[in-house]
Amino acid sequence: MKKLVSLASTLAASLCVSTAALAQTEVSFYFPVAVGGPVTKIIDGYAAEFNKENPDLKVVPVYAGSYQETVVKALTAHKANKPPAAAILLSTDTFTLIDEDAIVPFDNFVKTDEERKWMKDFFPAFLLNGQIDNKTWGIPFQRSTVVMYWNKQAFKEAGLDPNTAPQNWEQLVSMGQKLTKRDASGNVERWGIQVPSSGFPYWLFQGFSTQNGAILANSEGTQVAFDDLKVIEALQFWVDLSQKYKIHPPGVVQWGTTPADFMQGKSAIIWTTTGNLTNIRKNAPFEFGVAMLPENVRRGSPTGGGNFFIFKKAPEAEQQGAFRFAKWLTQPERAAQWSIDTGYVAVSPAAYETQALKSYAADFPPAVVARDQLPFAVAELSTHDNQRVTKALNDGLQAALTGAKTPQQAMKDAQAEANRILRAYR
Amino acid sequence: MNINSKQLQAYLLLLPAFVFLVGFTHYPALATIFDSLMSTPRAGRAPVFVGLENYQVMIEDPVFWKSVTNNLWFALATIPLSMGIAIFMALWVNDKIAGRSFLRMSYFLPTVLPMIAVANIWIFFYTPDYGLINQALQLFGLKSQNFLGNPDLALASVTVVAIWKEAGFFMIFYLAALQTLSPSYREAAQIEGASKWYFFWKIQWPLLMPTTIFVLVNALINAFRMVDHIFVMTNGGPNNASSLLLFYLYEVGFKFWDRGYASALTMVLLAILAIVGLLQFFLLDKRTHYR
Predict the structure, then answer these.
(1) Same domain, A371 and A316
(2) According to the model, what pLDDT value does residue A1 have?
(3) Which of A117, A379, B146, B225 has the smallest count of CB within 10 Å of its CB?
């Protein structure tokens, strides 16, 4: 009998707990990790803090792998009618998410003047990929651009001014030639410049193509310009860096090992995401600088990184909770701290006015280079059926970089493939 | 139907396994055949019957053919090499030598490590200039190679990692089989003065045949199932030089969300694996001597 009583009381207690939990709205939130550093810990901390301030909500962050794995999980869950309330996904997946009818625009939630102001406060360049048909589908969160890191020690060794990075393509070549170091038998000990081309070569290529004055896709995501003469020229320049000037490693360069190559002194200049800043700052054994990418006919870099999306099939209450979390997450103070912790660009000008980021930038000027580059930044390549169109370009770029095709042939083939895919959306 | 209680009990005991088999094997396979004949559903557009169109697309798809050829080369290299190395290692650690347990453990180690982590380490082995392998090359005065970034070397480079991983796994089966062989054979061979090679070729190898068949089928299946290293190390690149069938299937299914075409690709993979299974069942099994 005693046993029965205790059983009943445990049952009753657990029932109470579950009703208490029911009063809370659970907001599941998928996020990827794409750069070094304790990102999971930081996000879990944010969720805990938010939940404390908002007792009626319970944000449950779910680490979902890389960007690619996260979008697979989120879309699969959507197709099974059980999506998360929100997720951080690549801003370039916006078209795909709309085509799959997976997300709702933020305009549905923005009601007050304060909220309208919040939407306007982001850097315009970061809103480009998320705004389609005059609606805002994604809110910038972990955003980046490509920047140039240079090894000041190597510059000194090569007789260059360690405080000036190459400003244009010509200087990139001439400095690169001085920086490339070979041993007696002709083996390269240090490359002048290195731009990775594995995984997502299109992103770094957009640096070259933008600088040459080309825009790869229209804003409706239905038309690409891969065979534009300016695009072919830009690719020719990238290929020339290794084949003609011999200052860039031949073949396809790994994205993953590029920061290590830089820190090992194997490459004097690298292009990579500003998201690697904190990692390189902690681990580079020499003084280094961070600069905007060099210019040719203009300066330029694509933006990159992830936006915050709200899922359509999530219950209304969860969507509202996700919206509140998005606002909370992008407040200037928090965006500033996020930028300091990871190296990502803070998403609004207001974040750069905070004391925290001001004093951080005074102490470490490279932290604001990516922000200064934003006025020159363009939308990251994004179209309908984005991953397939992007693969066509990636394959073409790699074919040219490995010498399998001429830049002209490679881009013509990529254009033909993209046209075939996009025909259905025109 | 007249089922007695004993039979009923047997059916009930089989039921859970049967439910799983249907749910996770038979139903998906049938659904895939069906899906491969339909167009891919998009928001607002329900799938429609398209007949063999997805297969037509496949025949005209150069990336598909590239992945198939890559996969055949991959199988051709991994299967004999990993099995050969496995036998060699098993024979070696089967002998009474110093540090035997340590050797056995070292050979088996690749199998228990998480492959994604290992593939990340291998990326650094392959790094131009200062990667482990290139450092070794340079020691012998050879030029540093960009293993993963050169289309001529990328597939071979991921193949080596697969062999490294598989050989240790297969060794365990051979080792187990060797240990079941009665020591009297070896004693008899020693009395007769048979050489080590003769003993292996005439006695051990035939007796190991059932294991070899088992390992061969596993190796074949693994060769067409291989995907994880590709993700981490090359992403199928450069320009599809290291794309394998399952990797391409994943891309079509979960990057392009093209369900119809992905189902058609799955059918090809299923057909290959079915042929492998039947081959074992009808051909090899009959020629094998089981004790």
Answers:
(1) yes
(2) 45
(3) A117
Of the candidates A347, A357, A230, the one whose C-alpha atom is nearest the C-alpha of residue A298 is: A230
User: What pTM did the predictor assign?
Assistant: 0.87
Question: Mutate which of A68, A243, A252, A405 to disrupt the B interface (most B C-beta within 10 Å)?
Answer: A252
Per-residue model confidence (pLDDT) at position A20: 47
C-alpha B259/C-alpha A119 separation (Å) is 36
For residue A275, what is the domain's CATH number? 3.40.190.10
Exposure string of A208-243, with b = 16+ CB inside 10 Å and e = fewer, is: bbbbbebbbbeeebeebbbbbebbbbbbbbbbbbbe
In the predicted model, what is the mean pLDDT of residues A274-293? Answer: 91
Average pLDDT, chain B: 88
Tokens 């080309």 belong to residue: A214
> Count of domains in chain A?
2
**What ipTM was estimated for this complex?**
0.83
Question: Are the C-beta atoms of residues A345 and A274 closer than 8 Å to each other?
Answer: yes
Residues A113, A344: Cα–Cα separation, whole Å = 28
* Mean pLDDT, chain A, integer: 91
CA B163, CA B83: separation in Å to the nearest integer? 9
* Chain B residues closer than 8 Å to A387 by CB: 251, 255-256
pLDDT digits (tens, 9 = 90+) for B52-96: 989 999 999 999 999 999 999 999 999 999 999 999 989 888 877
Question: Are A131 and A182 found together in one domain?
Answer: no
Residue A158 dihedral angles phi and psi, to the nearest 5°: -85, 5
- Whether B62 has its CB under 8 Å from any CB of chain A: the answer is no
**Residue of A79, A254, A413, A417 best to disrupt the B interface, most CBs of B under 10 A:** A254
Is A397 part of a structural domain of the chain?
yes
